[in-house]
Amino acid sequence: MIVVFAAIIALSLAVTHRYVKTIYRGINFLAMGVVGHIIGFIIYIGLYIQTDWIKYFIGNGIFLSGTFLLHKGLNQFMEREVSYKRAYSILSIGVILGILFFFFEPNLVYRQNLISFLIIYLVVEILNSVIKSTDKIKATLKFPIYVFCTLFLLLMMARFIAVNNHIILELIPGQDFTYNFLSNIIGGILFVVLGFMISVIINIRAITDLKIERALMEKISVTDHLTGLPNRLALEKYVSKIEHNGQPYAVIIADIDEFKKINDTYGHMIGDKVIVEFSKALLNLNDDRMFTARYGGDEFVTIVKRFESVDTLKSNIAKTISTIGTQIKVNEHHFNLTLSVGVAIYPHHGTEIYELIHKADAALGDIKTSGKNSIRFYV
């Protein structure tokens, strides 16, 4: 049954590895680590191989390597820069002792205690790495790793006690199962469950990150990169929503007078900052009836819903442009900007947004040729 579970986990990890290894570091090591545990477990408990030295060296070696790869993969997955000198040193000493115990010490207890110590050490390293992770998304691994490490440490300590006290557990009458053998089976099951949890969590994280990335891309697609205001696409989407109710709305296009002189005098960097500060001031005036977007350059389009009359709308616009241009400060420079504003009304002047913008812009153009710093409705 464990072998079947192992095959399922290996397949799940292979799929995970195939699709997210280019996004998250450490997936390679996590996949190899869990698969290493499964292979090492199968060899060590002697399901298919009875040769002592193969079980001891290859089985334990693959199992320990799998645990180390899991440790390394988790660190990379959580983007932690960790030195592995201590782990390499302890594992190297363990290999030397393991060889000495195999050839010169007939008592199996020494070998079993050595393997228990090395695995406990690596599991503690894994636990320590996860404890030090801070990222909220990466911290989703904490709970399953905590549970796994706690159970596995308890299991290995029980194995250590049982091995040193030669405790025998008789599960089936007439057939003895040592705690050592039983702990290997339980350990194998734990690692299979761990592999399943890691695979599921990584896939969940990949899906979550994909949703976040998609939402971010959607936001970028409708946001002006300089000011953070909605762009033309956002304007189209907004207008398509409010057109369904058939209520009149005003399309107001505002242009900063003599903006070219600011660029020529102070440079484009200051000019861009003036645009940003102006957009902030403009946005602060918005209420739930208004939607403002940057149309391009120093031109801004505002949609106004639910206005009482054309005269009221014109009065409100006049109050706005008389004060908003005096609020602009960039570094040590103060700017007293004047604005020219063209207005078109839906559906009186048109029923399509760009038709309305074109007519508001035409009214704006009339102002530019006759003195600027004024408001004009399309006629």
Describe this structure in words.
The structure is a single chain. This protein is an alpha+beta fold and 379 residues long. Helices cover 63% and strands 13% of the residues. The protein contains twelve helices and nine strands. Helix 1 (2-20) packs antiparallel against helix 2 and helix 2 (27-44) packs antiparallel against helix 7 (179-221). The longest helix is centred in the middle third of the chain and has 43 residues, at 179-221.
The fraction of residues in strands falls at: 5-15%
Detail the poorly predicted runs: none
Number of helices: 12
What composes the largest sheet? 5 strands, mixed
- Overall geometry comes to rod-shaped
Report the order of strands and helices: HHHHHHEEHHEHHEEHEEEHE
State mean pLDDT (0 to 100 scale): 78
What would you report as the Rg, rounded to the nearest angstrom? 35 Å
**Total beta-strand segments:** 9
Helix fraction, binned, reads: 55-70%
* Distance N to C terminus: 82 Å
Q: Which class do the helix and strand fractions yield?
A: alpha+beta
Strand order of the largest sheet: 4-5-3-8-9
Question: What is this structure's SSE topology?
Answer:
Layout: H1 2-20, H2 27-44, H3 52-77, H4 85-104, H5 108-131, H6 142-165, E1 168-172, E2 175-178, H7 179-221, H8 232-242, E3 249-256, H9 259-266, H10 268-284, E4 290-296, E5 299-305, H11 310-323, E6 328-330, E7 333-335, E8 339-346, H12 353-368, E9 375-377
Parallel strand pairs: 8-9
Antiparallel strand pairs: 1-2, 3-5, 3-8, 4-5, 6-7
Helix pairs in contact: 1-2, 1-7, 2-3, 2-7, 3-5, 4-5, 5-6, 6-7, 9-10
